[in-house]
Amino acid sequence: MEGIAGKAAKFDGTSGYAKIGQTSGPHINTERSFTVSAWAKLDKKPSGAAVITAQAGQAAPGFELYYSAAYDRWAFNQYSSDSAAATPRYGRCSPTAPLPGRVRTWWACTTPPPTPSPCT
Asked: Which residue in 57, 97, 100, 106 has a CA-CA distance of 20 to 30 Å to 22?
């Protein structure tokens, strides 16, 4: 698929993913300061969360950068622990709701979003 500068990966939104880095353990120490960024383009407004990137855990991800259908904006969550009882300890949303009407547009998504605000 055509990207901002050359080619881009395209996923089906259901089962497709890219795996990079180590084969086990966390890639990022989420107890320290970190930044994750990605370019994303949605073909349609999602009915649920559209995850761009996340650090997988056994029960809860270390973090998620995603489009939230519930808040109608890009969001970032960092969780309290890798357990079934984990809660987001840091959640932020982009200040403006880019969808609907702005699908098929490339978005630069960075953690935390520029001028982060609580998800409300």
From this structure: 106
Closest CA to 111 of 33, 43, 48: 33
Query: pLDDT tens for residues 57-90?
Result: 889 888 888 888 888 888 888 888 889 998 877 6
Distance CA 26, CA 81 (A): 13
Q: In the block, which residue shows the tokens 């990137």?
A: 53
> Given CA atoms 46, 27, 15, 106 in this order, what sign does their dihedral have?
positive
> How many Cα atoms occupy the beta-carbon half-sphere of 19 within 13 Å?
8
Domain ranges of the chain: 35-120
Upper half-sphere CA count for residue 63 (Cβ side, 13 Å): 24
Q: For residues 61 and 96, what is the distance between their CA atoms, to the nearest angstrom?
A: 25
pLDDT bucket at 99, cuts 50 / 70 / 90: low
Task: Assess contact for 108 and 35: CB atoms under 8 A.
Answer: no
Euclidean distance between CA atoms 27 and 21, whole angstroms: 7
